[in-house]
Design a protein that fits this description.
11 strands, binds fe (ii) ion, alpha+beta, Jelly Rolls, 4 helices, 220 residues
Length: 220
């Protein structure tokens, strides 16, 4: 019997159940961030203590109240979040009778040494972060493989070779002022400690706006 040549067999990879992380860079971030820093610091002045609850992931930072999107001073950034949310809604083929909109929006100021332990955001579809001030080494955000079964037994991967992206079990994003990252609310994420070395404390702080998104019926 002749030897079979299998080189013409088909071979395919199909990806299902992906974890989608969206990002956007605001073209006018410098101006927006200048205003936001002023307004967030004003919030902090008014609410020195901030929100401190044991079930919050933030350790060592200041956490504003959760309704900043209702305040005039945060209207512009709230609208930019809504614009990005509308793109996600369209990209995912959501029902246009619903609007993917902000349910809560808050600010966090992480001074050097502070960080966020791993957590998820229950009760919404998507969550996001917008970086207002992000000095060098002020804390990468790290997302972890959500299929925990997959973490139980890992394959050995070729050394000195970049592992294919679909086989990663975590991914880190560097904080960049003006960048917005939106991720599934169920995706575990943590923020590394702020190790910024700016001489002035206020320049070394990592300042963010964070938010949760849910679908709301469009008002007629
Ligand atoms: Fe979070």
């Amino acid at each position: 019997m002749a030897k079979k040549n299998n080189s013409s067999d088909t071979f395919a990879q199909e990806v299902y159940f992906p974890t989608m992380i969206y990002s956007s860079k605001l073209h006018d971030a410098e101006e927006i961030n200048r205003e936001l820093i002023k307004n967030i610091r004003h919030e902090q002045e008014e609410d020195r203590k901030g929100i401190q609850r044991s079930n919050f992931s933030n350790l060592g930072g200041w956490h504003s109240k959760n309704h900043l999107y209702k305040k005039k001073a945060f209207k512009d950034i709230a609208n930019r979040v809504r614009q990005t949310a509308a793109k996600i809604s369209e990209d995912c083929g959501y029902d246009p009778k619903f609007k993917l909109d902000i349910g809560t929006m808050w600010s966090i100021i992480n001074s050097p040494g502070s960080f966020n332990r791993s957590h998820i955001h229950p009760g919404c579809l998507w969550s996001g972060v917008y970086y207002v001030q992000a000095p060098k080494n002020s804390g990468h955000i790290e997302f972890t493989e959500p299929r925990t079964q997959h973490l139980m037994d890992q394959a050995s991967f070729a050394p000195d070779t970049k592992r294919p992206r679909q086989c990663w079990t975590k991914v880190r994003y560097e904080p960049i002022a003006g960048k917005m990252i939106i991720f599934p609310a169920w995706l575990y994420h943590a923020v590394m400690p702020n190790l910024a070395e700016e001489a002035k404390q206020e320049d070394a702080e990592r300042i963010i706006i964070s938010f949760n998104l849910s679908q709301y019926p469009v008002k007629k």
